[in-house]
Amino acid sequence: MEGPSSPQPGLRLQSNPGSKTVWLTGLETEVIDANSGEVTSPEYLCHANLTFDSAGGHPTRHNQFFGGNTHLEWRLFTIVPGRFSIRFPEGFGIPVPASAMLDYYTMSLNQNVRDREVQVRMRSRLHSVSDGEPSAPTKALFRKALYVLQPQSARVSDNASTAMKMPTHVGAGCADFCAVNASAVSTVGPSGAGQTLHWLVPPGKHTYRTEITSQLVVPFDTTVHYATFHIHPYGKSLRMRDLTTGEVVLNLTSRDWPDRLGVAHVDEMKSTDGVPIQASHRYEIEAEYNNTTDHDIDAMGILYLYLLEKNFVPPAPAKVAQTASN
CB within 8 A of 253, min separation 6: which ones? Predict the structure, then answer.
């Protein structure tokens, strides 16, 4: 998580005259050669985060714009190795004020090429629809990022090679904006005190579980309509389990490149009907790793959920007077 990076602040959404709301319906990113512009290997992507621009105000301001009936946070989309495109089911989207400013933060990664410098750029396309358009969604989503956490490891925090400066940009890290200690081992909120979301896996097969009830905190019973996840090489799957019922809610798998280090594919779940989430239930997530090397490897496990806003009513688009032509 120390590769070359670049923010793109001050991005404005295209919208129709009079539009108050723009619906975000997807994002896709590809890695291109910085000189030729040709598509190159996606292995050079570390992560990319579409966020609200901090210069445009805190997300609370955007939630107030929608009457307090949305649960927008800083991040809107995260692109990770193995998942280079996110598209919601038809009819679903993230509503944002048409006047909102966005920021797209990209970071590159090189785990394989040692004999030369590789120059790359990220080319991305954001899919959006203005309110009032025939194709505009009618069902609003909000995002939750949920983390596998492990006890703080001195072997990670004492390793100078993992030390990073505290990020100052809301899109800088794989994890959402959170406290980072001096050794750059992140903890997520009060539930993560003394724990890390970036740990070491010894050789062999290992399963890591974290109760995420205090991370999830949904304000009402709802449904998941899109889900994907972030995992490191040698990771095999990420599951979400309802601890109240014992049922597996989501089971997503990953696949590494066969000929190089890196994650080639992570599953996504996309559903119009949705997967039920109960506000009163307890939940956990579980990451599986199979470290086939003879040394420790670094690991993460982050589940990204997009859940239904139950009380969202979009502001009516303003009427724009038609001007007669001469």
Answer: 236, 237, 266, 267
Full-model pTM: 0.90
306 DSSP β-pair partners: 143, 226
Question: What region, left, alpha or beta, does residue 160 occupy, with left being phi > 0 and alpha being psi -120 to 50 degrees?
Answer: alpha
Residue with tokens 């997520």: 188
Two tokens, residue 200: 């070491």
Question: Taking Cα atoms as reference points, which of 125, 138, 10 lies closest to residue 79?
Answer: 125
Q: Which long-range contacts (CB under 8 A, 24 or more apart) does 120-123 make?
A: 120/31, 120/32, 120/33, 120/34, 120/40, 120/44, 121/31, 121/32, 121/33, 121/34, 122/29, 122/30, 122/31, 122/32, 122/45, 122/48, 123/29, 123/30, 123/31, 123/32
Tokens of 148: 């596998």
Rg (CA), the chain: 20
d(CA 47, CA 261): 16
Q: What are the tens digits of pLDDT across the range 167-191?
A: 568 888 777 754 333 233 444 444 4
Question: Nearest CA to 141 among 73, 65, 52, 213?
Answer: 73
Confidence band, pLDDT 50/70/90 cuts, at residue 100:
very high
Kindly report the CA angle at 310 between 309 and 315, in degrees rounded to 5?
75
**300 within 8 A of 197, measured Cβ to Cβ:** yes
